[in-house]
Amino acid sequence: MVIRPATYQDRDEILRLLTQRGAFTEREIQVAMQVFDEAFRHGERGEYLIFCAVDTDGGLMGYICFGPIIITDGCYDLYWIAVDETCSRRGVGRRLMAFMEEWTAKRNARRIYVETSSTRPYEMARSFYRRNRYDLVCELKDFYREGDDKLIFMKEVRGLVLSAVEAECTEQKICVNRQGLSCPSGMLP
């Protein structure tokens, strides 16, 4: 698996990832694709950073979109993360999160925030964030609609020295290079 910057040619595959699980609403998918398009229309701004996890054949395994919170000192938002259902439970999401944490920490980030819904379709997402050591720091009642609270998770990344990805890769003798994370085929845990 390699984690690399997204290209505009990844658009259709990212759309496929967002729709395949049925967790996101049609409106949420539209917003995700608007963010994707905005990232390529105004990439020089660096507001939206998009990276893809691809297999050795170049097939999209997952993607992550994050960016700096403009009016803060060293805070980032995770906007989107999605993993192909055929790659579920193989560490792709965890590696994308660790990549983002390392990337932001190297740029003097302090914190990463994640916003999600309190509804049942997002139960797996909330569990995933907790497993990746994100703490629930805020709950806004009935934010999206009645009975659908906005939950905000946060993780401190300031001073992150050795990421989970680097530690795992060092242990397995996997190379982390300038283009991203490169794992030899067959090395997925």
Question: How would you characterize this protein structure?
Answer:
This protein is an alpha+beta fold. The chain has a single domain, classed as Aminopeptidase, CATH 3.40.630.30. The protein is 31% helix and 32% strand. The chain contains 5 helices and 9 strands. The strands form 2 sheets. A 7-stranded mixed sheet has the order 1-2-3-4-5-7-6, with helices on both faces. A two-stranded antiparallel ribbon has the order 8-9. β6 and β7 form a beta hairpin. It is globular. The N and C termini lie close together (11 Å). The relative contact order is 0.15.
Helix content: 25-40%
List unreliable stretches of 5+ residues. 170-189
Number of strands: 9
Order of helices and strands: EHHEEEHEHEEHEE
Sum up the overall morphology in one term.
Answer: globular
Radius of gyration: 16 Å
CATH architecture: 3-Layer(aba) Sandwich
Question: What's the helix count?
Answer: 5
Tell me the β content: 25-35%
* Adjacency order of strands in the biggest sheet: 1-2-3-4-5-7-6
How far is it from the N-terminal to the C-terminal residue, by CA?
11 Å
Task: Give the helix/strand class.
Answer: alpha+beta
Mean pLDDT: 86
Total discrete domains: 1
State the CATH class.
Answer: Alpha Beta
Biggest sheet record: 7 strands, mixed
The CATH homologous superfamily name equals Gcn5-related N-acetyltransferase (GNAT)
The CATH topology is Aminopeptidase
